[in-house]
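Researcher: Quick one. two chains, 596 residues in total.
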Amino acid sequence: MRVVVWITETGWEACVETAAALAPAGAEVTLLAVPSGELEEVAAGGRAGLLGRRPPPPRGPSWDEVADDAARALLADARDRLAREAATEVRHGRVEREVVAACVGADLLVLARDGDDARLGPKSLGRHARFVVDHAPCRVLLVWPGEPPAAKLPPPPHEHGEHPPPPPPHERGEHPPPPPAPHERP
Amino acid sequence: MSEVAALVALAATLAAAVARPRLAPDWAVAAVAAGLLVATGVLSAGDARSAASDLGPTIAFLAALLVLADGCREAGLFEALGAAMAQGSRGSPRRLLAMVFAVAAGTTAVLSLDATVVLLTPVVFATAARLRVPARPHVYACSHLANSASLLLPISNLTNLLAFEASGLSFTRFAALMALPWLVALAVEWVVLGRAFARDLRPGRSAPHGGGHERVVLPRFAIGVVAATLVGFALSSLAGIAPVWIAAAGALALVIRERRPPVAVVRATEPAFLVFVLGLAIVVRAAGDHGLQSAVDGLVPHGDGLLALIGIAAVAAVAANLLNNLPATLIVLPVAAAGGAGPVLAMLIGVNVGPNLTYVGSLATLLWRRVLHAHDHDTDIGEFVRLGALTVPPILLASTLALWLALRVV
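Model:
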C-alpha cells in the first residue's frame, strides 16, 4: 500500500499522527511538501510596480531557496514525528496540481483541511484542498488540523415545522412537471 | 499636430517603462522622446530647461536617499530587523504580524517604499519561513504597507518628493498634516488583513519554532545616521537649509563608514532611473502644455472642502491604477498644486494608496505581466484584488477625512 501524506505548515502534525495511527505496518509512506510560488509572484509584482527602477537583487538566499529549505526542514520534522520509515518529496509548481500528480499510483492521500477550521462546513476546505479532494486519483483521508470544532449541526428545517419545505410546483397550481424525456423512460 | 506628438511621446515612454524591452530601455526612450519634442519645437528649449531645473533638486534628493537606503542595506540593517521581528514575535503569528506592521510602516516612512518592496519583503518572508508560520499575511502586509504607509514623510515615496516642492510645505508641516491620515491607513490595513488572514494567524499546535533564539545585532551607526538625518530634516526649515543637503550628508556618512567604492555609490543612485524621471517629467510637461493639462483640469475637483479633497484623492487613485503612480503624479500635480497644500496632499493619498488595488501598482503593468506569465505561477490574483477592494476605498475616504481635519487643526 502506498500512502502520500501532504505536509503543510498549518496541518502537518495532524496528518502525521493520522498516518502513524492508520497506515498499515508495511505501507510505503511518502511525505510530500509543495512550496507555493504565489508569494514570490506577489513580491515580484511589487518590484514590477516600481516604474523605471532596477534595484539590484537582494543579498542572501533566493526566494526559492528559502522556501525549499523551509519545506525540507518541515519534512524532516514530520518524519521524526512519524517515527517510521518514510520517503520525502518536495515538488514545485501549482500546489493543487502537484499534489494530485504526486498521488498517481498511490492508494491513499492524507491531507488536512486548509480553510476556516473554526466552523463545520464547506468553508473548512480552502482552494487547494478543495481541488485535491475533487481530483485525487486515490482514496482521500481528510483530517482537521486541530480538534474538530464543537459546532452543532444546523437544525434541519422541516423538523421544526415552522418553515416546511415548499410544495412541489404542481401542487402550487403552477406549470405541471414536464413529462420525462423518452430516453429516461424505464 | 503637436498634441498628437506629445501624447505619442508620453505613451511610448510609459509603454517602455511597463514592458521593459531589452533593445529600448525606458530611460533611453524617455530621453529620446524628450529630446525629439524639444528638437521638433513641440516644447521650447526654455520650457524643457525650466522643467528640468524644477526637478533638479528633487532628483538630487532622490539620489541621496537611494544611497542612504543602500548604506543601511550594506550595514545589515534589514537582516537585523528580521532577527528582531523573529525575537519579538516569540513564535506567535499574530505578534509577528504586529512586528511586521511596525517595521514595514517605519521602513516605508523613513527609507521609502522601494526599501520595503526590495529589501524588507524578502527578509520578512525568510523570517516567517524560519519561524514556520504561514508567510502569506506577512508578505501581503509588506506589499500593502509599502504603498499605504508611504503617506507620512516627503521622503516616503517618490510621489511625495515630487509633490513636496509644489506643496510649499516645510518638512515638519508635511509630516504633521499627514500623520493622522497615515495612522488611519495603518489602522484600516491592520483590521482588514487581520480578519482576512485570521486562520493563518492562529497559533500553531507545535511549540514555537526557531523564534527567540536569534541574537539581534542592530547596526547602531546606520540607525544613528538615519535618526540624525530625520532630525536634520525636521530642523532644516528652521535653519533655512534645503533638505537635500541633509540627505546628502546622511548618505555621505554611511558611504564613508561602510567604505562603499565609488562605483557602488553611483550604481546605488540608479542613474538610469534618474534619467528616466527627468525625461518623463519633460514629456509630461509637453503633453500638459498641449491639452493634457486642461483635460485633467476638467476632471479634478477644485477647492479644499472635504468633498473636493475626496474627489481629488479618488481621481488620483484611478489615474495611478490606470498608468502608475509616478506619471499620474506628474500629470495631476500641476492641477492639484494650483489649489494649495490640501489638494496636493489629497492627491498623494490617492496616488500612494490607490496602487494597492493590484499587486503590481497599475492595470497597465498587471495586463502586461498576465500576457508574459499567463500560466507560470500559482497566483491567486483574486485574493490580492479582494484585499485591495477591502482596503483602498475605506483608506481613501478615512485618510482624506483625517487630512481634512488635520488641515483645520494643525
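The mean pLDDT of chain B is 91.
Researcher: Thanks, that's what I needed.
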